[in-house]
Amino acid sequence: MASMAINDRGPMLTASEVAEMLHLHVNTVKRLGDRGELPYYRVCRRGDRRFRLDDVMEFLARYR
Questions:
Q1: Judging by beta carbons within 10 Å of its beta carbon (0-12, 13-18, 19+), is residue 20 exposed, middle or buried?
Q2: pLDDT digits (tens, 9 = 90+) for 6-50
Q3: Are 29 and 38 in contact (CB under 8 A)?
Q4: Cα separations (Å) of 49 from 4, 12, 18, 21, 64?
Q5: pLDDT (average), residues 47-59
Q6: Which domains, from first to last, does the chain contain?
């Protein structure tokens, strides 16, 4: 998780970093975001997804 960015919303993770944390495929993480189960933010012109660390931890707590 070397590229974790910190902004006013707290630490932000890429879909790949979240996938590694949750032991899921990156496409599964993106699908969870698309279904609204894991909130994400769009960044930059390409619309890359970033996930708040707090949201990922809440997701883990909810589904354990």
A1: middle
A2: 667 789 999 999 999 999 999 999 999 999 999 999 999 999 999
A3: yes
A4: 13, 10, 11, 16, 24
A5: 96
A6: 9-62 (1.10.1660.10)
